[in-house]
Amino acid sequence: MSLIKSVSIVVAAGLVLVLGYGINDRVFWTRWFSQPPGDTVLTDWAWYKPVDVIADGPSTPLPVADNQSRVISRSALQDAEAYAQSFDSLAFLVVQNGVLQLEHYGAGIDRSSVIDSQSMHKGFLGVVATIALDKGFIPSLDTLVSDYIPEWAEDERQSITVGQLLEMNSGLAQAEFTASPFSPGQRLFFGTDLDTPVQNTPLAFPPGTAFDFNHVNSQAMHAVLTGATGMSYAGFVREYLWQPLGGGYAQVRRDREGGSARIFCCIQLRPMDWVRLGVMLANGGRVGDAQVISEAWVERLMTGSELNPNFGFHVWLGSPYSGTRLVSEPSNRWSPVSAPFLADDVMYVEGRGGQRLYVVPSARLVAYRAGRIDFSWDDAKIVNILLSGLETDVDPALVQ
Fold it and tell me: What superfamily does domain 51-398 belong to in CATH?
C-alpha cells in the first residue's frame, strides 16, 4: 500500500471519528486546535470566544511605597524578586497594608497586561460564592444543590450540599482528563455544553466522606450561583465584587452564546486587580468604607474542613503543617510542602504550575505571581522570604 493511500485512510478514519462525535461540535474542534501552547497560554487568551466581559476599564493602581512606607527589607524583596525571576515570572507584586512594596513585570508585560489565571479562577469563585452566602442569596452551606440542579433530586446525589461543593467533598466523580480530545475533561475545557456533563456526573463515593479536588465541584456552583441570584455569573461578580473593589478589565469564558460561564478555570484579569482582591481579604472584607464581605464570612472562607484542614472554600491554607497537603483521598494524591509557613494564617489561591495569590491577614501581606508553568514553584519559600523580611521597628500604623 502506498504512503499516500495510507495517509488518506488515516485522515478519512479521523474524519469519520470526528463527524461521528457530532458535526455540531465544530466549535469544540476549532477551540481544541486553536488553543495556544503551554509557554504562551497565560498571555495568548484572545483566541477563545464567546466571553462575558465583567468590566472594561483601567485598573485602579495601589499606592507605591517610599522609604518611609516600605516595611519589608530591601534584601528580602530582592531575594523574592530573584526567586520569581528564576521562574520566568510575567508579574510579581508584593503589597503590605495596601501599599505596593514591589512591582515586577517580565518582558512585554506591564500594568495594562491581562493575564489568564488557569485554576486561580477556583479561588476567585470561592470568594464570589462567599459573597452570595453572606448576602443571603444562598441560604446556607447546608442548602441542597439539587434545589438548583433538579436532575440530582431523584438519586443519590440529592444530599450534596453547597458546602460540600465548596470544600471539595461532594463525592462527585472526576471528569477524566487525558490528552485525547475525546476525554470528558477536554470536553469540560472546550465543549459547547457545560451543564449536561455536570448534570450527568455520577457519585464516586458518598458525599461528605472524602476530600477530592475536582473541576466538577467548581462548575456545579454555576447552577447554584445563577439559580440563587437570578443573575448571570459575570453580572453578579460585576455588581457585588468588581464594582466595590474598583476592578479593571476582567472577562470569563462561556461555553456558547447565551450559555454557561466556565468558572472552574481561566478568568482573565490584570495583576493589579488580583492584589486588590487580596488586600480586601487581608482587610477583613473591607475596601475603603465598603464592607464587601463580612469579617465572619471572610474567616469562614479561610477555615479548613474536617476532611482537609488545608482547604477552605476553594482556597488553600498554609496551616496546619504536616510536610504535605492532601489533593485527593480517593486517588491518594498529595503535594509536598517544603517548610512550615512563618504565619499561621497564610491563605493562597492556586493556579496551575505556580500561578498564585497569597494573603496573610495577620501581616496585611499580599503577593501575586504569574509566569512559567512550573510545578516546582515553592509556596512556603516565597512567602517565608517576605514574612522574614518584615521590619520590626516600623511605625505601627503601617502594619495595623
Answer: DD-peptidase/beta-lactamase superfamily (3.40.710.10)
